[in-house]
Design goal:
The chain is α+β, with helices and mostly antiparallel strands. The chain folds into three domains: about 100 residues, Arc Repressor Mutant, subunit A (Orthogonal Bundle), CATH 1.10.10; about 40 residues, no CATH class; about 260 residues, 2-Layer Sandwich (BirA Bifunctional Protein, domain 2), CATH 3.30.930.10. The protein is about 35% helix and about 20% strand. The strands form five sheets. Strands 8, 11, 12, 13, 14, 15, 16 and 17 form an eight-stranded mixed sheet that branches. Strands 2-4-3 form a three-stranded antiparallel sheet. Strand 13 and strand 14 form a beta hairpin.
Length: about 425
């Protein structure tokens, strides 16, 4: 059985708020200021709009549909007399807290638990005070609870933020550049000859739309062109071929974030420390360790007082902060750095050293045409590969393609 609450009794006498609002609107439109003067206006507007009876137009309240009956109002009268009411109406009145179960019913329900061991505290026990006369089952804190899987950051997103913090803590500023890049910034500015195999379609994605990209200031273009042809102002012999502007304008998906470093060299003044974390694209066959799209970590230090030892120091500090204990360096070759090196870390689980990127000191043929006449330390490091090693993931496709929920749920990023 149900009885009226104090609010329910008041609405039985005065009428439901929405009923009173409708009766006011039958006499004509109301401004919002006038309507707000009525008691319980916010409740009235809520239920009247929910039932589709009224609408707010500008500063006016309009009656758009006159209700034929007010079943909730009628139900209040029936309940006050002990008569039965439809379940759906009861549900509405209960949700509005206009009715409640009678004390006798609550007590009857609560008394069924008296003297017994119970797990959950019920509404009836609280309202009647009989919770004092029941025994609660003890909790066993050693029993594992139900496992939940809250949302978490993607593995790559987590490590991008972590790496960003490492470089910011080391005093670097962050830079970014376009994904669709000119061959000039991606290759030519880095002293890579226009007939280099890396420029072939086998390695590079060339764009159809846009097919060409804008070149930078003519002075920079001319200096780079001369450096390729005869060494220009760098006092080197150059590559000894006729440099072609059309090739330099070809638009591509950037193959490395070193293109961002080249752009920054044309803008910064020494001393400067800049890093970039971004997507790069290469025409790779997809397998467990290769993707056509991956993330690269780029960095440059422009300063007249730095040398090769500083380069090794920055790289070692970076990998230590990433959690690797053993780091070593192997001599290497890259077209745009001299000296060049490949950092390696020791992977305990496999018991072997693994290479994680390339680094070196930019050649004068790269820096001088861009207006820099001091040493520039540079590196381009893989992001996915060290993360794979650190988390013992054996397939790079797990990051992007496989959507392995078990891996994402169970991986411990910390």
């Amino acid at each position: 059985m149900y009885c009226l609450t104090e609010e329910g009794r008041r609405y039985l006498e005065q009428g439901l708020p929405e009923k009173r609002l409708v009766e006011l609107l039958k006499k004509g439109k109301l401004t919002m200021q006038d309507a707000q003067k009525m008691a319980d206006f916010s409740i009235a507007l809520l239920w009247a709009k929910k039932n589709g009876w009224v609408a707010v137009r500008g500063n006016e309240l309009n009656l758009v549909k006159e209700p034929k009956a007010f079943p909730e109002q009628d139900a209040l009268g029936k309940i006050s007399k002990g008569a039965d009411v439809e379940e759906n109406i009861l549900s509405i009145l209960l949700s509005r807290k206009l009715i409640e179960e009678e004390r006798e019913d609550l007590r009857r329900k609560a008394e069924k638990s008296v003297g017994k061991e119970i797990v959950n505290l019920t509404e009836e026990l609280i309202k009647t005070g009989l919770w004092r006369k029941v025994k609660f089952r003890e909790y066993n804190t050693e029993v594992p609870g139900k496992r939940i899987h809250p949302g978490k950051k993607h593995i790559i997103s987590y490590y991008i933020e972590r790496i960003r913090k490492i470089f910011l803590d080391l005093g670097f500023q962050e830079a970014s550049g376009p994904l669709v890049e000119s061959s000039f910034w991606n290759f030519d500015a880095l002293y890579q000859p226009q007939d280099h195999p890396a420029r072939d379609l086998a390695d590079t994605f060339y764009m159809k739309n846009p097919a060409v990209a804008e070149l930078p200031d003519k002075r920079i273009v001319d200096e780079v062109a001369k450096t390729h042809e005869n060494g220009g102002i760098t006092k080197s012999s150059g590559w000894g071929y006729r440099w072609n502007t059309i090739n330099a304008k070809r638009a591509i998906l950037r193959t490395h974030t070193t293109a961002v470093s080249a752009r920054m060299l044309a803008q910064v003044e020494p001393p400067a420390k800049v890093f970039c974390i971004g997507r790069v694209f290469r025409n790779e066959t997809i397998d467990y360790k290769h993707l056509p799209e991956f993330t690269q970590i780029e960095g440059i230090v422009v300063d007249e007082n730095v040398g090769f030892r500083d380069l090794l120091g920055y790289l070692k500090e970076f990998y230590i902060r990433m959690g690797f204990k053993k780091i070593r360096f192997r001599p290497s070759y890259f077209p745009y750095t001299e000296m060049s090196v490949e950092p390696e870390v020791f992977f305990e689980e496999k018991g072997e050293w693994l290479e994680l990127g390339g680094a070196g000191i930019f050649r004068p043929e790269v820096t001088v045409p861009l207006g820099i006449d001091v040493p520039v330390l540079a590196w381009g490091l893989s992001l996915e590969r060290p993360v794979m090693l650190k988390l013992a993931i054996n397939d790079i496709r797990n990051f992007y393609y496989k959507n392995d929920l078990e891996l994402l749920r169970n991986i411990n990023l910390w």
